[in-house]
Amino acid sequence: MRLLLSAFAPELGPLAEDPPPGWETATVGIGAVTAAVATARLLAERQPEAVLFLGTCGRYDERLALFECLWASEAIATSLEERRGGAYRPGLERIRWISTLPGPLPPRAVAVVPAITKTSEGAALLASVAPAEHLELTGVFAACHAAGVPCGGALVVVNDVGPEAPIQWKANHAEGSRRLVEALRASGFFEEA
Does the model's pTM come out above 0.90? Predict the structure, then answer.
C-alpha cells in the first residue's frame, strides 16, 4: 500500500473519495509541525511502501505559471526573517529534505515557511530560495526520511505570493487540485506505482 497525503481533503481532489488501486488517503493538517506529527503517526499505523503529498502552492515570481503542476525536488525550511538577516538557524539544524520518490512532473525546489507570506517585498526576498512557497512539505518529508519511507510531493500553483494570495487561493485551489490529479493520472504515475 502507498499513501496519498494532503493538508486537507479538498487538496486530494477527486482522489479523496476514489483513490487509485493500491493507494490510501489521509490528511495531515496545516503547517510543517502539524504535518510532521500526523505523518509520523500515519507511517507507524499504516506502514506504507511510499508517500506522495498532494497540495497547492504559491509562486514568488514568473518562473512558474498559475496552475502549473510541479514535483517538489526538495523542501527547504526557511523564513522571511532569515532572508532579512534578522534570524538564523543553528549550523547543525537540517533545513533541506530531498524527494526520494521519482515523479512525472517538472522538478522544482519549494520553500517551506512557518506562515503565509503576505507582502510583495517578502515574496521577492524568498524567491532567492525557491520559486514556490508551501507550508507542510518539510514536515512530511522529515517524517518520511526518519522512517526510511520514500516520499515525494506533487504541487500545483494556485496563487501569487503576496497581498492577493488569500483571494486567489480561495478562487483557484479546487480547480488547481483537480488539474494536479488529472496531470498525475495522465502521466501514468498511479499505474506505475
Answer: yes
